[in-house]
Amino acid sequence: MTRYDGVDGLRTFRQELRVWLDEHDASFPRRAPHASLAEEVARTRANQRQLWDADWLRYGWPESVGGLGGSPLLRAAAAEEGARRGFFYDTVFAITEVLAPAVIDAAPELAAAHITPFLSGDEGWCQGFSEPDAGSDLAALRCRAVDDGDHWVVTGQKIWTSYAQFAPKMVLLTRTGTPESRHRGITALLVDMDSPGLTLRPLHAINDVAEFSETFFDDVRVPKDRVIGEVDGGWRVAMEILCSERGGIFWMLSIWLLDELQRLAGEADLQPADDDALGRAFTAIAGIRARTWTTQHRLATGSIGIPETSIDKILMATAEQQLFDLTRASLGGVLEFADGDGPAELRSQYMYSLAATIYGGTSEIQRNTVADQLLGLRSS
Q1: 313 CB contacts (<8 Å, ≥6 apart)?
Q2: CATH code, 126-234
Q3: DSSP of 291-345, one letter per residue?
Q4: Average pLDDT over residues 365-380
Q5: Of 81, 131, 214, 245, which is the active-site residue?
Q6: CA distances from residue 170 to 80, 115, 192, 301 in whole angstroms, order as listed
Q7: How much is the average pLDDT of 150-170?
Q8: pTM for the complete prediction?
Q9: How confident is the model at residue 380 (pLDDT cuts 50, 70, 90)?
Q10: Cα(188)–Cα(242) distance, rounded to whole angstroms?
Q11: What sign results for the dihedral spanned by CA atoms 371, 372, 376, 380?
Q12: Which has more confidence, 377 or 146?
C-alpha cells in the first residue's frame, strides 16, 4: 500500500490520480441528455464504485471501514478530481462526506458493520433532520423515539430529506427526552428505510426535480444497537454532520461553480458592461474556494467548529446566487424562453440557486451564528 504523507504526499497523490484518470477516463460515464434523477444517482454511484475499487476513494478513510488510512485531505483531493471531470451528480456524492465522518467518529462499531457499502457507492444514505416545524431551529424537533426493550419505536415526520427514495438507510435525529429538553434530549439512529411503518413521499420542486422527500414514521421499530453515539447525545452527532454539510463539501461543489462560470464566459454574449458582475462572480467563487480549502485542512485536524463553517455556507450561497443571476441576465432571455436541453438545465440550476440561502440553514441564521458565537455580538 502506498503512503501519501504530508504536503509532498498529497501532491504526489494528486499527480498519480490524474495520470490514472487520464488513462481510464473513457470508462467513467458522463451525464446523458434527458437523464433522470434516478439515472444520475445510479451513474454517480457506479463511478464512485470504480474509484473505490481502484483504491483512490479508499484513502482518507480508516481501515476499520475498508479504507486505506491517511489524511482526510486525500479524499478531498480525489473528490475534487472526480467532480472536475463530471463523474458525479455532485450533491449525491457529497452526502458521503456529510454523514460518514460523524458516524465513524461517534459509533465506530456500527460504522464497521454498516458503512463500507456507503463509502464504496454500493448504496447511498439520507439524512433525517428537518421537520415541518423544526428547520433552522433543529433543537425543536418532535419526531419521537420511545424505549421499548431491545428496540426504539419511532413516530413522527421529517421533510426535505434529500434522495430518500434512493437510500436504504437514514441517519435520523429523534426526540428521546422531553420537548423542553431541546438539544439535550435528542438521539441519533441509523434506520433501515424498508422498515415497516416507514413511508416516504417525494416532493416535486420548482426546478422540476424530485430531489427531496418527506418521510413518515408510524411506530417504526429500530434496534437498540443502531444508536449513533449515546442516548440523548445526538446533538453532538448533529453538529459534526452540520459542520461537514456547511463547510466540508463546498470544496467539491465550488468546482461545479467554476465550471458553470467557464461555460457562461464561453457561451454568453458578454459585453464590457458585464465586466463588473463577471468579476464579482469570479471573486465570490475564488473566495469560497480559498475558504473551503482552509476548512478542509482544519477538518482534517479537528480544529474547526460549526460556528466557523457558517461562514462557508454564507460564502457558498452568495457565490451560487451571484453566478446564476449573472447567467440569467447575460443570456438575453435564453434561460426564460428557449427550448432544448441546455436552457432547461440552466433553468433548473437557476431555480435551485434561489434556495441556496435557505437549504442547510438560512443565511439569516448563519449570520446570527457568526455574530453571536464568533464575534460575541449577542443582543441583550
Answers
A1: 246, 247, 250, 360, 361, 363, 366
A2: 2.40.110.10
A3: HHHHHHHHHHTT---HHHHHHHHHHHHHHHHHHHHHHHHHTTTHHHH--SHHHHH
A4: 85
A5: 245
A6: 25, 12, 7, 27
A7: 97
A8: 0.93
A9: low
A10: 13
A11: positive
A12: 146
Length of the chain: 380
In the chain, where does DSSP find H-type helix? 6-24, 37-53, 72-84, 90-106, 108-114, 116-120, 234-243, 250-267, 275-300, 306-330, 334-337, 341-353, 363-369
pLDDT of 269 over the 80 cut: no
On the CB side of 224, CA atoms within 13 Å amount to 7
Burial class (CB in 10 A: 0-12, 13-18, 19+), 71: buried
Q: What is the pLDDT of residues 221-237, one digit of tens each?
A: 999 999 999 999 999 99
Active site residue 180: no
Domain borders along the chain are 6-88, 126-234, 249-374
Q: Which residue has the higher pLDDT, 197 or 333?
A: 197
pLDDT tens by residue, 333-365:
888 999 988 888 889 999 999 999 988 889 998
Which set of grid coordinates corresponds to residue 79? 473528490
Of residues 304 and 116, more confidently modeled: 116
Burial class (CB within 10 angstroms; exposed 0-12, middle 13-18, buried 19+) of 153: middle
Q: Say which amino acid occupies 110.
A: L
55's grid cell:
483504491
Q: Which CATH number fits domain 249-374: 1.20.140.10, 1.10.10.60, 1.20.1540.10, 2.30.130.10?
A: 1.20.140.10
Separation of alpha carbons 380 and 378, rounded Å:
6
Asked if residue 260 lies in contact with residue 327, where contact means CB atoms within 8 angstroms, the answer is yes
